[in-house]
Write the structure tokens for this entry.
Amino acid sequence: MSQTETTIPALGYGAANVGNLFRELTDEEAWAVLDAAWDSGIRYFDTAPHYGLGLSERRLGAFLQTKPREEFFVSTKAGRLLRPNPDFAGGLDTDNDFFVADDLRREWDFSDAGIRSSIDESRERLGLDRIDLVYLHDPERHDLDLAIASAFPALERLRLDGAVGAIGVGSMVSDALTRSVREADLDIIMIAGRYTLLEQPAAAEVLPACRETGTGVVAASVFNSGLLAKAEPTRDSRYEYGGIPDHIWERLQRIVTVCRAHDVPLPAAAIQFPLRDESTRSVVVGSSRPAQVRENAALAALDIVPEFWAELTDEGLI
């Protein structure tokens, strides 16, 4: 194994929202969100070409170019190239939940040349000479076998060449994460929504694989698409971009009861829970509103008594 030692700030900002996820932001509004993150002490920023067809990378890059390079850590993703959309007719990329013109389209490319092009193009959009961490993005949605045979070795060569700092994989699928950890030489993985206060399927195989291989973890989607973002969730809240199944709602109500008993805000527990595992290096949280970014940073620093976690454990909830 030739993993690199990677130090990531414990709280990160996930920049999908500044790529106009779910709603359009002006450049000024996006800058205000990033400003709020920086002023709150956040120094890890995660983006991807997928987010707003490059808009997130461009906006984040413009912001970070005003900051000292040694003071922040940035990650992006590879696997999808952005190419001109020959069918563009003035529409929006709302099929992917981004409110941007769909004048570009995403093209999967796990070849050595494709991975190198992806990183070069991300570097150009970001305006940065180096990227600290690159994740292969959702490889199971294209071809996990090809990812293991081609894309990960390409990333390993780029790491060896010094073109990127650390490498990893980002996914919402536990099986894909486990296989990637065991069959590639990765530094960090991003677990999206599979290791949260509400549900922890990644604890069965992904986290043990990470411990065995010394692979670090970044937890994303810790609010389960917004369900855990408020102290008192409602039945019509969004879960995994859809409705809430009955068994999930019942489990959530048990968690909320424990939160009330210990006076712990639900979103604070959601942000801090993944960091209790020894493999977790960072939690990445996104928002499109400056006030929410500042609140998330405060919740991440909130002191939570050990008895709270002990009761959740005794109740079989974590």
